[in-house]
Fold General L-amino acid transport ATP-binding protein AapP.
Amino acid sequence: MAADPIIRIEKLNKWFGAFHVLRDIDLSVARRERIVICGPSGSGKSTLIRCINALEEFQEGTVTVDGIELGPNLKRVDEVRREIGMVFQSFNLFPHLTVLENCTLAPIWVRNMPQKEAEAAAMRYLERVRIPEQAHKYPGQISGGQQQRVAIARALTMNPKVMLFDEPTSALDPEMVKEVLDTIVDLANDGMTMLVVTHEMGFAREVADRVVFMDMGQVIEVNAPDEFFSHPRHERTKLFLSQILR
Ligand SMILES: Nc1ncnc2c1ncn2[C@@H]1O[C@H](COP(=O)(O)OP(=O)(O)O)[C@@H](O)[C@H]1O
Ligand SMILES: [Mg+2]
């Protein structure tokens, strides 16, 4: 584990009412590290990554992002969110704005960037996700895979230090999964720190430095992908792998 992790989660506990959804989560992420999080539906994966950028409150423990500590009071929400880009399963683009406008909205309104500058920057990110030619279309006029790449470009326009992906390909038709995963691989190769919730185990093998397996609100096992897939240590991990790798 790195001496100076960019994300440090310590003794994180969260309840939804009486339901204990996250149990004593400890996880540190080094700069440039790529983490894949997997586990059964309902195990708390989304809730965990939503705690990292303060989309969820929690009752115990701390989440520290690049030295900014979030506790149960969520005092430093804005500071933490500035460091983090997030991409969801559903692309969440504004349908009435063009691709380019979707990508310039936050830089203009949150960062007060002049429009011309925001557009030039957005075009660079659209080039990076390889769809600059779609800039003047509306989300409804492009494919799901292209929409998800726009969502990635949009997150990048805020220049995040960490990217969180929550099942970024699970809403896509199968033929579009690869183009989105390839975009995430490109980002990883550029050194972006990332946490990716996904069941794409080929991606995990290729890209992850470590795979985190969650079940029932706990981190059950953390391991390098080779070890994780060839020698899962826990029965629950074995069961999960047997179900998804079939
Ligand atoms: N806002 C909420 N209120 C109450 N329960 C919730 C809420 N969000 C999620 N849950 C519950 O918490 C558990 C973990 O959910 P989630 O983090 O979405 O799991 P995963 O992403 O691993 O499928 C599930 O049992 C889910 O029903
Ligand atoms: Mg989820």
Summary: The first helix runs from residue 45 to 52.
